[in-house]
Write a structure and sequence with these properties.
By secondary structure, this protein is mostly helical. It has 7 helices and 3 strands. α3 crosses α4 and α4 packs across α5. The relative contact order is 0.09.
């Protein structure tokens, strides 16, 4: 059996709120607060790896979306935005920076001369392949802080919760 742990920052905040507002159930802070803090730590750890490759988090995301597209490693800017969950305005800035670095090219769409296509260059593909390998090693390192059973249980819980948030069931109008 695990030994009791000293209260963490979130537990101390909850204790303060329970004292100051005993009329409120602050138990959600135990989950939400810890997830929020964990997300910050994880983002920091992930961005260190992106930075080693000269990439921002957003640039890494765009290069990954192009690489995941498969040969010929290209997508329209709108499709890139959809695959990275950012606005087209933010996508334009990312693509501009990546194009200036020689990691992507832009060309007119063959089917629609008004449309554009963004494609990985050979140096872009080489960079994202190495950066992604390092990224996955880093994710393994971070997840290795949990046992395989804990990681599996957490993955299942997070998947369930995220699905319920992103695809809520229709209201029961019965």
């Amino acid at each position: 059996m695990d030994e009791p742990q000293a209260p963490d920052r979130v537990a101390r905040i909850q204790e303060d709120w329970r004292r100051e507002r005993p009329d409120l159930d602050v138990s959600p802070q135990g989950v939400i607060g810890r997830l929020h803090r964990l997300a910050g730590h994880l983002t920091e750890e992930l961005c260190l790896v992106y930075g080693r490759h000269g990439l921002s988090e957003g640039e890494f995301d765009v290069l990954c979306a192009l690489r995941r597209a498969g040969e010929p490693y290209e997508r329209a800017p709108g499709a890139l935005a959809a695959h990275t969950m950012v606005t087209t305005g933010a996508m334009t800035k990312r693509i501009d920076r990546l194009e200036q670095a020689g990691l992507v090219t832009r060309r007119r769409c063959d089917d629609d001369q008004r449309g554009r296509i963004v494609a990985l260059t050979p140096p872009g593909r080489e960079l994202i392949d190495q950066a992604f390998s390092d990224h996955i090693r880093n994710e393994h390192r971070l997840l290795d802080l949990l046992t395989p059973t804990e990681a599996s249980a957490l993955q299942g819980l997070l998947a369930t919760w995220l699905t319920r948030l992103e695809d809520p069931p229709p209201p029961d109008n019965g």
